[in-house]
Amino acid sequence: MAEVKRTRKYSSAVRDEQAARTRARILDAASRLFLEQGYARTTMQDIADGAGVARDTVHAVFGGKPRVLTALIDVRLVPDGSVANLTQRPDALAVRDEADQRTQIEVFARFIAGLSTQLRPVFEILRTASAVEPEMAGVFAEMDRFRMKNMQTYAKWIAARGPLRVSTRRAGEIIWALASPDVGRMLCDELGWSQAQHARWLSDTLTRTLLPDQEEPNGRHRRPERPC
Q: Could you give the count of Cα atoms lying within 13 Å of 122 in the half-sphere of its Cβ?
């Protein structure tokens, strides 16, 4: 009986590994096709052919093309699937655990600039698809609400380390706007900024907007220096 149980456990592990590989092939094919020919022109059959699977398999795994696209976003937010939410990633928790507010914002800005580089191509597909397909407009709104919830979490972490110029809720809204993929697209994809320049700008702008002026020994207040 024990041998049968071990065999069943092994078979289950093999099936799980095969399912994960199939899912990854589907996402790789969908990403390539969405970028090459656009969301609207890519069919579920195209994705199935690109992944080397049956069309019914794509439907069984994801349910529909909108959820293929959101799965692409999810895998860029948490590549290894080890946590349920972006704010639980180790590099996000580093923001929570940093004791100094200004360093917190620097850590956050570097994290978001890197994430933006990974996420922007797929997020741009979602944004353009939402303009032409009503169903995708709902998905886009859902993702924006999800992002707002996460930015409110970061705002609470920063507020826990010291005073802010604005309410914690307003701080989350400001972070949501300044750290958006759209801003990253304009600065990096349109203007040619590097990821490091994007991170320095975001850190400086959030520090100036969210935190009180620093007080110098002579009693004067000093604004943060601009990034080089």
A: 23
